[in-house]
Amino acid sequence: MFPSKNTYDECAVEYAQMMTRQEKTGVEPNSIMARFLQVVGDVSGLTVLDAGCGEGYLSRILAQRGAHVTGIDVAPRLIELARTKEAVGQINYQQADLSQPLPAYLEHFDLAASFFVLNDVYDYRGFLRTLGSVLKQTGRLVLFMNNPYSLMVRGHTTDYFADSGQVFPYRGLAEAGVKVHFYHRTLEEYLTASFAAGFQLEQLVDVPTPEGSFQRRRETLIPEGYHFPFFTILSFRKA
Ligand SMILES: C[S@@+](CC[C@H](N)C(=O)[O-])C[C@H]1O[C@@H](n2cnc3c(N)ncnc32)[C@H](O)[C@@H]1O
After folding, report:
1. Which of 30, 139, 154, 239 gives a 20 to 30 Å CA spacing to 223?
2. Is residue 97 included in any domain, yes or no?
3. pLDDT in tens, 109-144
């Protein structure tokens, strides 16, 4: 069984190395990041929170596109590495648990963007409440996540409903030395929590696994040549 606490700090260096390898190729046109940025839209001049910024992968991309970026993550070593990778000091990095209130940033941001974080947050309801509170009125939240339905086709679980709340290891990341875990909740639970936090859903995007960009995992139940949305983007407006 994996712990409920965040373990990214224990493998921060391995995670940062993995992201450095990924970053070398830039944002490729058919990549999942390109799809995410398309939904995020023009960020030039906007005050943007990168929620769960890790070592700053998305923060750097948003800053290059003209956003005023604050990157926040619960893992102190990832924040240190993020600061090292961005020597100019253009990005404001802060260590904080986004499941807890963040009074210093009340109604501060035009946009909160979050890439591969929601599944990893233990208290996802608190996380969504905090994001609601730090956005300006009518601000936007765009989340990229592992589609909860993909848990079944990836062979993690045989009971989508009974296993909600359970914790599972990330197998692909573990192969890169990054021993971290995620939580399963149903899509219904995520949406209910988002609405309770004061968000209105504007767009749901099913993101297919791009050809060749992910090694097909042995455990998947999807036969070769079939297409399935392993990822989902949720775009909300603060109501
Ligand atoms: C898969 S990583 C993604 C990091 C980054 N967005 C990226 O794309 O490289 C998930 C991140 O969520 C962070 N995280 C998990 N729970 C959090 C919380 N309660 N508050 C802030 N960050 C959190 C982890 O520390 C980790 O950096």
Report:
1. 30
2. yes
3. 999 999 999 999 999 999 999 999 999 999 999 999
> 161 pairs with which residues across the strands?
none
Looking at the domain assignment, is residue 2 inside a domain? no
Residues in the chain: 239
Full residue range of the structural domain in which residue 157 is found: 8-238
Q: How many domains does the chain have?
A: 1
Q: With H, G, I as helix, E, B as strand and everything else as coil, classify residue 162.
A: coil
* Strand partners of residue 95: 73
- The single-letter DSSP state of residue 208 is P
The b/e string for 26-51 (b: 16+ C-beta within 10 A; e otherwise) is: eeeeeebbebbbebbeebeebbbbbb
pLDDT of 102 reads 98
Structure tokens at 215: 């090694």
The SS3 of residue 128 is helix
CB 182 within 8 Å of CB 167: yes
What are the pLDDT digits (tens) for 88-99?
A: 889 999 999 999
Q: For ligand 1, which residues put their CB under 6 angstroms from it?
A: 6, 8, 19, 52-54, 57-58, 73-75, 78, 97-99, 115-117, 120-121, 127
Position 219 in a domain: yes
